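Homework-ish question, so no full write-ups if that breaks the rules, but can someone show me the predicted structure for this set?
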Amino acid sequence: MSVARVTTITARSSVSFEDAVRHGIERSNETLRNVSGAWVKENQVIVSDGAITEWQVTMEVTFVLDD
Amino acid sequence: MSVARVTTITARSSVSFEDAVRHGIERSNETLRNVSGAWVKENQVIVSDGAITEWQVTMEVTFVLDD
Amino acid sequence: MSVARVTTITARSSVSFEDAVRHGIERSNETLRNVSGAWVKENQVIVSDGAITEWQVTMEVTFVLDD
Amino acid sequence: MSVARVTTITARSSVSFEDAVRHGIERSNETLRNVSGAWVKENQVIVSDGAITEWQVTMEVTFVLDD
Amino acid sequence: MSVARVTTITARSSVSFEDAVRHGIERSNETLRNVSGAWVKENQVIVSDGAITEWQVTMEVTFVLDD
Amino acid sequence: MSVARVTTITARSSVSFEDAVRHGIERSNETLRNVSGAWVKENQVIVSDGAITEWQVTMEVTFVLDD
Amino acid sequence: MSVARVTTITARSSVSFEDAVRHGIERSNETLRNVSGAWVKENQVIVSDGAITEWQVTMEVTFVLDD
Amino acid sequence: MSVARVTTITARSSVSFEDAVRHGIERSNETLRNVSGAWVKENQVIVSDGAITEWQVTMEVTFVLDD
Amino acid sequence: MSVARVTTITARSSVSFEDAVRHGIERSNETLRNVSGAWVKENQVIVSDGAITEWQVTMEVTFVLDD
Amino acid sequence: MSVARVTTITARSSVSFEDAVRHGIERSNETLRNVSGAWVKENQVIVSDGAITEWQVTMEVTFVLDD
Amino acid sequence: MSVARVTTITARSSVSFEDAVRHGIERSNETLRNVSGAWVKENQVIVSDGAITEWQVTMEVTFVLDD
Amino acid sequence: MSVARVTTITARSSVSFEDAVRHGIERSNETLRNVSGAWVKENQVIVSDGAITEWQVTMEVTFVLDD
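A: Not a homework solution, just the prediction itself:
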């Protein structure tokens, strides 16, 4: 692994933070090749009528560039 | 939404971080109107006799002020 | 509690962040006495072939020193 | 001035960041006495259909407590 | 809104910080779809012969990804 | 202790930082119940005619909410 | 440009943050040669009797040293 | 001094922050050789029944390793 | 220069941090036009069998957008 | 007060942090006019033969510029 | 790799920062098994009589714990 | 060493970061007496036509004040 790029995304789930992370990685795989990991830098919840409706994560996703 | 306030709370659960977040939002609803979300800025565990007894979160809770 | 030490560890789990925290506390108990808590300061995932293979946490573990 | 409190608010304006700050101070005056200043710690814009619709500031407002 | 990307840009204006923000959002709209907002994280001025010639902002622009 | 709130105050003393902390906790006790601790995050001095006239602290005070 | 110095100033205006920046650069030009730019790192307002009386910026001003 | 280690401790005193620092250095000397200094990175107070019962510091203690 | 983008990359070298920076800029030039500079925000080494095998940098690369 | 400068100093005392702050302000008064305050941003101790020999503070000292 | 520890060291060299990093890793290998990497978080130089006499790095060294 | 000042400079070299540090210390010696060290807080490169033309460091230089 010589050069990698880091891109920032936010992902949401109605279930949990970990489900949001999984969802974000899946979506990243659709457009990026060679995703090697991610750093979760923010955790937020969206609340509506007193209930948590979304668990949102902000992640820095790393993917290796082809030579 | 014109002006909102942000208040900091800590909440604990014997089960998980996400349960602590849910508990904190529920308690906030008792005294605050129009909670719109929260940012989880710290995750801690309390350990006793080698076992995790509490999962604690520190959250910044946002609620919209009435005009 | 008069003087405590803080040591930094990383722990991984194939299941979830919370399982990684539990694993890290268990491993700390093997070599440290009087662990009183931990602060989770980083959450990362390791991805291989498009799937999350490891949930990794970096934790600052506090343990009380004997007098 | 002996003891002061600091409270965090977000305020929005359709015009500019400075208008949002002014709006936030005005709203604070309605419920807080003796506001002495504020520190603007975040500037954000909300975009809709390609245009900026809101200029939002997050401010820490200080007000002096009566003895 | 399920997954969004965050991209960092710098934009300049000879007039004001707010004009630089507006300019940055306009340029982002040319290549990105569904821009939803931006966080202004740095404000700088460029000075030449004693006068401010450019007002520069560094912004994190968020845009929603199509499913 | 299940849910606690954190509020930010500044307090001043003509004597020392520690006296300012003590003063801030005393003032907090007048309006808040169940104060459990505080984190001192800023230390400042006010100088007039070359002499320190005030020792000022900014503190995050934690107090436990009744169930 | 080989070696430059960075100095921190605060400047105030009764009009706006941008006017305070302009004022700070003008004052810097009186005593410093070759000012090349500034980074605005803090924005504050001073409030008196419910109204904003001063817009204050803290800036790191860069100026190039003569060889 | 060629290589040194940095270890983090928390120490408490019923008297003052400076007494807690002194206490932490004394305890460090019992198990570490060649302590050369410490950086105090957190100051906290523990409050019980409205009174400060403990002044707590978190310190990064540096000690030189033997060759 | 009116609008620029900032992208984050990591680059590695078996020789030195500066060689890793050079390598990262070269790789950026292959896919980005008008690279104007980079800010090195992290320095890491990878160790295997007691020896440093890789010098890794994380860089924020700036490139100017065509009008 | 229209424009002020901020300068960083470190000061030491064999007695306490507060004595070091006082010493730093006194020394600043010798070369700077109109010192209005200081922000203490670092506290360190120097240890020799197991005892604290110096209490060191790093301070940002503000002084008002003459018009 | 399941659980790893992170320890902080400072290392010095009369030659360069990279030589100091190499020196720190070599010294770590003497007392720690399975060092896997290090993050360089501070770079400092010591100056005497106008010349740089030491290049000093502060590093967080990671080593894998045996099961 | 009783009171020291800290001043911020940027220095550039066409060769390497370490050469830039050396250049910055040399330039500081021309105007400051008793420079005792420096902390390198930023590393940047300037790129022109795809090649690194300048290695730039931002340093906080400490110098001891005469009594």
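Now go work out the reasoning yourself. Hint: Chain D has one helix and three strands.
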